[in-house]
Amino acid sequence: MNTATARTDPLARTHLVGIGGAGMSGIARILLDRGLAVSGSDAKESPGLLTLRAQGAKIAVGQDAANLDLFGPDGPTAVVVSTAIKPDNPELAAARARGLTVLHRSEALAALMAEHRVACVAGTHGKTSTTSMLTVALQHCRLDPSFAIGGDLNESGANAHHGHGGVFVAEADESDGSFLAFSPSVAVVTNVEADHLDHHGTVEAYTAVFESFVDRIEPGGLLVACADDPGSAALAAQAEERGVRVRRYGRAASDVTLLDHEPTDDGGGVARVLLDGAEITVRVAVPGEHMAGNAIAALLAGLELGAPLAGLLEGIASFGGVRRRFEFKGRAGDVRVYDDYAHHPTEVAAQLRAVRPAARDGRLIVVFQPHLYSRTRLFAAEFGSALGLADEVIVLDVYGAREQPEPGVTGALVTEAVPLPAERVHFEPSFEKVPPLVASLVRPGDLVLTMGAGDVTMLGPELVAELDRQVKLT
């Protein structure tokens, strides 16, 4: 890097606190792709850190003020943190004491978007899948977009990339309101439904942050909104009143109408869509009508970005999914095991409906881990109702993540709300007891699905191993 660049670019030497996180690692990858210097720290080793080191990042394990000196005497030009980093973090505290530029993750990402045409995908559910579909479709059209996504694409295994096509596609996170740092020319809002009330406080405040996000759309830009979701539909109506151009999609939409959706034998689906007066077919390799809706949203955003319809349709059809979104973990005999990130009642219900055809003649057995004490307390009844769509349910204890335990709030609250016979609902807080429990429940042809945003994802391989052992014993 030349000296002039180091003097003028605030991200010339960037230190990321918590560099292994999904959002932070994506920023690091883009910075490295652009030839900028990157250092960082994380609480523990991970495969992601090894990848970043191989790309040239200097990374320390553990949080220490001395980590700011990984660049040597020059030090970082900026320190990037996420909402998860507390004010007393030693690296953040040292950065402020030194007078260094401190940026929130979203501010750093917004700086990387400069001089690009930006498409942001937001929504309570579906934003990772929709962002990923749009990215893969644009890549298929040879537009080489830059992108930052909250999950790894199955095609490339990456969650971020610096492209040369002049387009930047980003998943826009509403959980802490940080997406208000972005100014997209195309914004997609898949849905708006109460969530993250631990941060926003009220449903009204949560809804209001989406309204502020729409206000960030560049003049002449486009809002793509789902007409079937009440929250997104209301947001679209308000946006139109303020002069924002809107295109709606869904069964209730007049702009782009979903006429019907049929599951296919390979686990995907085919949607018949009316687009600008012409009937087209949208093929999706992942299950569920909700995924077909995400595909249509991605299609509309891609068209607005100037990509050809035929290329977008081919790209969407080739989309192989995102890690932890109905991700196949293995098979033991005639029993298949999948893992999914769903952690809100609406997501759980939508995914179970989508997965049901894939179970074929077998039963659907779900191992669910509630995420956050506040979310479990607020939505225990709704989680129970959603899990009632399965045939057999195992509920783990709450994965607290950033929250402290709350008295009386455990996975048992969810278990008690599942409307299935008691013998088909199990509360099992012990991880090591889950694989043998599942093995005692399954029958040939069953589909086992682990669900949640926490460490439940680690159970997949253990379930496959235990089931395989049971198959060999018989």
How is this structure best described in words?
The chain has three domains: 3-105, Rossmann fold (3-Layer(aba) Sandwich); 115-318, Mur-like, catalytic domain (UDP-N-acetylmuramoyl-L-alanine:D-glutamate ligase), CATH 3.40.1190; 327-473, Protein-Tyrosine Phosphatase, Chain A. Helix content is 35%, strand content 22%. The protein is built from 16 helices and 21 strands. The protein has helices at residues 3-8, 22-33, 47-54, 90-97, 105-113, 127-140, 197-200, 203-215, 230-241, 289-304, 309-318, 345-355, 373-387, 411-417, 434-441, 459-473, and strands spanning 13-17, 37-42, 58-61, 78-81, 101-104, 117-122, 146-148, 160-161, 167-171, 186-189, 222-226, 245-250, 256-263, 269-275, 278-284, 327-332, 335-340, 364-368, 392-395, 425-427, 447-451. The longest helix is centred in the middle third of the chain and has 16 residues, at 289-304. The protein starts with a helix and ends with a helix. Residues 1-7 have low confidence and may be disordered.
In total, the number of strands is 21
Question: Strand count, sense and closure of the main sheet?
Answer: 10 strands, mixed
Distance between the termini: 63 Å
Q: How many domains, as an integer?
A: 3
Q: Can you count the helices?
A: 16
Question: Main attributes?
Answer:
about 475 residues; alpha/beta; Rossmann fold; UDP-N-acetylmuramoyl-L-alanine:D-glutamate ligase; Protein-Tyrosine Phosphatase, Chain A; 3 domains; 10-stranded mixed β-sheet; 6-stranded mixed β-sheet; 16 helices; globular; disordered N terminus
